[in-house]
Amino acid sequence: MSIEYLGLSEINGPLIAVEGVRGGFFEEMVEFTAAGGDKRLGRIVEINEDKAVIQVFESTDGMSLDDTHTRLTGRPMEIGLSEDILGRTFNGLGEPIDGLGKITAECVKNVNGMPLNPCSREYPRNYIRTGISAIDGLTTLIRGQKLPIFSGNGLPHDQLAAQIVEQASLGGDSDEEFAIVFAAMGVKYDVAEFFRRTFEESGASAHVAMFLNLSNDPVVERLITPKVALTAAEYLAFEKHMHILVILTDMTSFAEAMREVSSLKGEIPSRKGFPGYLYSELATLYERAGIVAGVEGSVTQIPILTMPNDDITHPIPDLTGYITEGQIVLERSLHQKTIYPPINVLPSLSRLMKDGIGAKFTREDHQDVANQLFSSYARVGEARDLASVIGEDELSEVDQKYLAFGTAFEQEFVGQGPFENRSMEQTLDIGWRLLWMLPKEELDRVDTRILEKYYKQPKEDEQVPDSGSVGS
Amino acid sequence: MSARGKIYGINGPIVTLEGNQGFSMSEMVYVGQRRLVGEVIGLSRKETTIQVFEETTGLRPGEPVEGAGTGICVTLAPGILNNIFDGIQRPLKAIQAVGGAFIPTGVNVDFLDRKKRWKTKLCVVPGDRVEPGTVLAEVPETGAITHKVLTPPDLCGVVAATVKSGEYTIDEPLVLVETDGGEKRKLSMTQRWPIRVPRPVGRRFVAERPLITGQRILDTLFPIAKGGTAAIPGGFGTGKTMTQHQLAKWSDADIIIYIGCGERGNEMTDVLEEFSKLVDPKSGKLLMDRTVLIANTSNMPVAAREASIYTGLTLAEYYRDMGYHVAIMADSTSRWAEALRELSGRLEEMPAEEGFPAYLASRLSAFYERAGYVENLNGSEGSVTIIGAVSPQGGDFSEPVTQNTKRFVRCFLALDKSLAYARHYPAINWLTSYTEYLNDLAPWYQEHVGPDFISCRNQIINILTTESRLNEIVKLIGSDVLPDDQKLVLEIARVIRLGFLQQNAFHAEDTFVPLEKQLRMMETILYLYEKCKALIEMNMPMALLREDSVFEKIIAIKYDVANKELNKFNEYKKRIDDFYQKIMDANA
After folding, report:
1. Which of A54, A280, A320 to mutate to test the interface with B (most CBs of B within 10 A)?
2. What is the complex's ipTM, to 2 decimals?
3. Of A168, A208, A119, the residue nearest A421 (C-alpha)
């Protein structure tokens, strides 16, 4: 379509109103040419007969009402894809910014995607070993899952995500193709650089496609970045049959951008000023993870979000938690105790874990150890509360054992080195070693047979270091 | 002649037409060249407002809109069971056949299989009088359920002719009826019914039969009646969906309608896969044979999410009319409420609390009131039980959806974060949950399970309540300073929590527990309590009692005693007697 319209009727931040538009459709892409010949992209977000409201993905600076040309492209937002996107870096709209030239597109895809038919999904069952005990042991990541990291500003979520990417293996001797799609929304330059460097150092950068919208890039572009990245991920997974790990950071910036645009459009706000469709919008992103039955390949998502004021009940983490299949929650107090990764295991959860572990996948005792560690560590919290009131010395013998167990659990099970890559066996064995610190009758979540088999005095060389008054 | 118009404006799922084009309120419409399904939700002289149940990307102003002449309807005929639909009853398997793994927009598929020939047994002969609800024919729909073809609720007359019993499709006429008005009407197996209108019933009864679920905390502490309403609120990760799955698997309803409203795609796949393998202990048939899944996952269009709840309800009412007991699992009603909010926001309506529209409460009450234990038009009895999950924002039960739901349900099963963190499942908090059905159901329990059932139940609740009171003290000064009788209460409460309330959904025996075993477990625990109390009264210290492994033995009953070996409980009674005697011998 080649009709060009001259002149705009209104510019309001990133929103532009144009009148007299004929034949435009909802969510059509629009190209503006400003006075200097400078081109910008936008998308129709509301249309009434011949009046269109257009969201501009770049800054509207320098555009004027009279001299701007508007051209309807006749297409929705699309991106050209081929296998060559691996190893490349793009901006938030999917345009290359690494100076290596354009991608020769093998196919063109609508970035909005389509909902995956629940009948065509395959229920995810294969676990991904990350080498991190708190994740492998207690919130096992499953291929095809969406498992976000709930973090706060200043917590090492980036480091954790990078470690997962580096160590994630599909278990055993798989020769399946594995690649990473990384989408940054409104993150600081340093963060993007940190990831780029990590991928490079680990030799993975040839298998990474990066989509970067940094914090000084246009806000509206941020709304499209995750969609572009997920479209690329779906293409690689379901058409090129790779196993894709998608890192989306930071979902909070994405939601904030939505709020900004929504309020400019004059929409009625719901919670904390976020638009009413925040849930639907987040869901259309997160639900683009999974496995298509009968098709090799998978999309696994690890979105990262920073909880404003560490508040897990804030709408962004709250709605995310209702959509994703669990969450990994980082905790400031653990970080302050210099425990890395500072994962608070109690609110952390992997919903798909139950079907991907056990004798067939990991080890027969996995579920039991996990349940027992959760339950015992929850009890540690009670003992600590009590100790803070009546003092540690006044605690009963059992409660004192719990205190010692709690400390050891945080340091030895949760805590590990940023380059330490533990096997599943190691993780579970550490679990049993720690449970040995508690009397047998306290272990009420473990099947009697499993308990007899695994609850044993640890061998000399891996004795629990004497932590306090409790020991053998 | 159906109304026609042209699109004027598009904003997300909301499409407007200029002026009044002759559409009627709640009428179903086809929007645009691709004929997307929509519904009229607002009419004025100036503007007609339509919500579209599919993605509106690509719609242009000026495209045609055509009215269907009726409200959004479901098609009622054999083939509903063992099927999975989207929010407006389009079968997802048929969509998959047409559109592949992803759901395209504007797909046109039949709601039910129109080619399949069903084995039909006619139940009327010429000359029979038929009234609303009269069974015209019977069709074995699945291994477990016989589908009854009913006379539509608006028809009275005399059968003029019938076909012979045999195999027919859902469209072929079976019966010719001469109505009282003198008209002749051909009736096939198929009926259509608008989803927002409740199907008529004869009269409603007080619900006095329990929905048996095999889940101890529900059956014993917080029973739900057949035809009752229950809400399961809980923050994310507290196990709403797990609880709903357990109920869908094990409850003794004849038919389960599972509505996945705005939830995860993988969860629906899980239900579909699992229910296609699991066998119903009652009928010996596959669980899917008695199940209908309605999947409108969170990434499917929001307007269809709003409709999915009503679609499910109408299907449930239809099977109730045949005389079945139907249970609806709605997961989650909050997503439905949020869909209302989202659409209300797009319509620029004045928001009430937390941005929800002011009609939230009336919509919720209308939804839950469609449950009930009724006498149908044809005299049979049936029920619709609604169990709705609620996902409160931030896990805070004071938010509008939970609070309004609380007003309209009679059983409230509050899920608790701290229990879930400790992996105490089901994480139903026994202090904040309640049921109003207990008094209605008490006679049934006394007659069918045991005369002591209710009194045992009350004792258990009492011990748990006392425990929570004592825990307040323990939190301040530790448990060592409590007198021994109170320490005993704490110990017994622990036995109840671990041995009775906690139930392992993944354990072959523990996942479903018959009422008799629940009663015997309670009796055993209370017997232990009684014996220990006697010892404590004789000044035996609690520390001494605790040395014995009897407490752990009782906790392990749930795993150690199979559901069929109830006589084993006598050994446990003996074990408690021995324990009592041993302590007496050693210390008296």
Report:
1. A280
2. 0.86
3. A168
